[in-house]
Design goal:
The complex is a heterodimer of chains A (270) and B (170). Chain A is mainly alpha-helical. In chain A, the strands form two sheets. Chain A has a two-stranded antiparallel sheet. In chain A, strands 3-4 form a two-stranded parallel sheet. In chain A, helix 4 packs antiparallel against helix 5. The termini of chain A are far apart. Chain B is mostly helical and 170 residues long. Chain B has one domain: Ferritin.
Chain lengths: 270, 170
């Protein structure tokens, strides 16, 4: 059977890229992406294009989990199958929006970093911990901020699309949280696998991270990746069943930047 | 059909639906075309739901929940052959022009054979599945037009599929 192999990144074994349309140029580092200064139509299109690409990658990852873990409990496989459909709809709706904005697929470089990391891991718990509980949970923070930014800029359509996607992502994080607990209860070695996965992610992240002052491919000066942690989407993380302690730790890492306070301000809640 | 024969038939259909889910999932990361990936993504969920409905029904027929039964060897070999398809054209043709229509035909035969009153819950499940499979065939057809994907020559495969009278293994 045809399988996607592995590549070496300075001693780390990553999964080789999944297949992409010829129109896409796949890059590895953020500096090679075309992130523009905020506020232009081009920047807005690149943001939508980037998220569309991330959704394609999420679809590939969920599908690959179905293949590589055929003995996972059926109920977990059902969650992954449902996630495939959700990510497919996200790709379609973002592609539709991209075209409405005057863009097209392949207009900007893309990365498949989440696949390269997640599909290098050899247990379903480690993959759930990395893809769903880390990348997708992180995306909940980013997407909430972005939906607000598009709303603030008068682009209600893109804001609504992102908010709809965010609602689906909550379930992807929630089912991972539930299954990780269940798998760890049945086998304590799962916790070790998860810890190793998170350490692996941190090490690869460190190798590829942008450094303060680096210029990206379109001349934007980037900040150190450690200084660009997004505000935490507390509300949705609670819905995704992160514990109070876990949310506090995430908040601490984000320098206590949260989106809940802003929401309460906007709605006039004390 | 008696109760055991109905359970065996539904358990066999469940095997096929799970296999189709896994085939679409296997093809997803190795297929470059975004539109095709996205269609597989939706159909993965369709097949999973069909398997789930069938698996719950087998429990009502004196079998374990998600009772799954391997089909006739010749049919399994065809499924395995389909999974190895290299090109998008072959993948779309084999799955949506041969295997899925064949499955619709086989579900139809079940409906003709069973006691529709006595076996009402199975009938309900299958009557939910058939329109979804037909929708998939239509979606694949439209996508091929949109992307100008040619139909592959699969006449040998089609003949072999048609020649298998019953997929229910001995």
């Amino acid at each position: 059977m045809k399988t996607i192999g592995f590549i070496d990144l300075d001693g780390h074994r990553l999964r080789a890229d999944p297949a992409r349309d010829a129109c896409f140029r796949v890059v590895q580092r953020d500096v090679d992406m075309h992130e523009y200064e905020e506020g232009s139509d081009l920047a807005a299109r690149e943001t939508v294009h980037r998220h569309m690409s991330n959704e394609i990658t999420s679809l590939d990852i969920a599908a690959q989990c179905l293949i590589e873990f055929p003995d996972a409990p059926w109920e977990l496989r059902m969650e992954l199958a449902r996630q495939c459909w959700d990510e497919s709809r996200h790709v379609m709706v973002l592609h539709r929006r991209l075209i409405e904005m005057g863009g097209q697929k392949g207009e900007f470089p893309i990365a498949t970093f989440e696949w390269n990391i997640t599909c290098a891991l050899d247990s379903i718990a480690a993959r759930l911990a990395t893809q769903n509980r880390t990348f997708e949970a992180g995306a909940m923070d980013v997407v909430k901020s972005l939906a607000r930014a598009f709303h603030g800029g008068g682009d209600e359509e893109t804001s609504a699309v992102l908010d709809g996607i965010l609602a689906d992502e909550i379930q992807h994080v929630r089912f991972a949280n539930r299954w990780i607990k269940r798998l760890a209860r049945d086998d304590r070695r799962v916790l070790l696998k998860m810890a190793m996965a998170i350490r692996f992610l941190a090490e690869v992240n460190e190798k590829l991270a942008t450094r303060d002052g680096e210029l990206n491919a379109v001349g934007k000066r980037l900040k150190d990746a450690r200084d660009t942690v997004p505000a935490v989407n507390i509300e949705d993380r609670k819905l995704a069943e992160f514990s109070e302690e876990e949310i506090f730790e995430i908040l601490r890492q984000a320098g206590f930047k949260s989106l809940v306070a802003d929401d309460q301000l906007r709605e006039g809640t004390p | 059909m008696n109760v055991k024969q109905r359970a065996d038939a539904l358990g066999t259909f469940r095997f096929i639906e799970v296999y189709l889910m896994e085939t679409a999932a296997y093809w997803t990361p190795i297929t470059p075309e975004m539109e095709v990936k996205v269609m597989f993504g939706r159909h993965i969920w369709d097949f999973a739901q069909h398997a789930d409905w069938l698996g719950k029904r087998t429990f009502e027929l004196r079998q374990p929940e998600h009772y799954t039964r391997r089909p006739d060897d010749a049919y399994v070999r065809l499924l395995e052959q389909m999974k190895q398809a290299e090109t998008v054209s072959e993948r779309l043709t084999l799955l949506y022009d041969v295997v899925v229509p064949g499955l619709v035909r086989r579900y139809g035969r079940y409906l003709e054979t069973t006691d529709r009153l006595l076996d009402g819950p199975s009938v309900l499940v299958i009557e939910r599945i058939i329109p979804e499979l037909r929708r998939q065939m239509g979606e694949a057809q439209n996508l091929r037009k949109e992307l100008a994907v040619k139909t592959a020559d699969t006449s040998d495969f089609r003949r072999a599929e048609t020649a298998i009278d019953s997929v229910v293994g001995a």
